[in-house]
Amino acid sequence: MAVVAMLCVQLGLAASVGLIDDLGSSGAAWLRLAWAGVLMLVLVRPRLRDYTREALVAATALGVATGAVTLFFMAAIARLPLGTASALEFLGPLSIAVVRSRGAGRAWALLAAAGVVCLTQPWSGEADPVGVGFALAAAVCWAAYILLTQRVGDAVTGLGGLAISMPVAALVATLVAGPGVVGDLTPELLLAGLGLAVLLPVVPFALELLALRRLTAGAFGTLMALEPAFALTIGLVVLSQVPDALAVVGVALVVVAGIGAERSGARTAPDAVGAETGRGAPAPA
Asked: Which of 46, 102, 199, 217 is the most exposed place for a label (fewest CB within 10 A)?
């Protein structure tokens, strides 16, 4: 589920390049999140009385983190190659992996970090500094997103948590970017935004929530190292962004680290039971 989610994210980002040209990075992010919020409300139809106070607070916080990571990352890919932006954003999940993992799990996280360094090649000095700043801000928000997604997934059954977080994320994006782009919308752009919202964020965020019911936060964070590799590959195939030999080595390292994290990062049986019933407390990673 995590791997499919990452593929959807990177395909959605690559497909959003045209939308960025028409609406700007923040406008494209707003349109996708607005449609995602509407879709989740229609499909899940949440009733507030079915949520505890703690679940509502966590889902609202998740919505804020979701809106922020989307806006920051869209701003980053408007200034950086997709693979570079994704590698920098991975520092958020990597931080969780290093802090939450032990033994072999931490070793996989460090191997993934080496791969990300090969992908980004920070010594080259070619990256746009503003784009790097946006990508690092997205990394912080992504770390919060992972922790909050696991908490919400454990507290609320099904996709009920996303039915709260997605509309909140849409409101955050509306406050930041909505007023400036409403006048530029056309029926064609609205339809394109709807299709992109399904590809990103509706499908991948739902899959990530389900995956975090089965993986520790540390293992999930390390597994996210595969995303820069997917980004590099999709950037090559879809956007003609050609990587060098060192970047290819980086891809190999993060792939190996991601496989190792997945094999060693299953959550324990009591955690799984709690997640399925919706009554489990957030599990230690």
From this structure: 102
User: CA–CA distance from 237 to each of 123, 226, 283 (Å)?
Assistant: 26, 17, 39
Check residue 46 and give left, alpha or beta (phi > 0: left; psi -120 to 50: alpha): beta
What gap in Å lies between CA 261 and CA 276, rounded to an integer?
A: 23
Locate 248 and state its tokens: 């290819």
Query: Taking the CA atoms of the chain, what radius of gyration do you get in angstroms?
Result: 18
Residue 62 near residue 145 (C-beta atoms within 8 A) = yes
Report the distance separating Cα 59 and Cα 82, nearest Å.
Answer: 29
CA dist., res. 275 & res. 115, Å (int): 32
pLDDT value for 173: 95
pLDDT single digits (tens) 67-108: 999 999 989 988 888 777 887 888 888 888 888 877 778 888
DSSP-derived letter for residue 79 is: T
User: Could you give the CA distance from residue 171 to residue 158 in angstroms, rounded to a whole number?
Assistant: 23
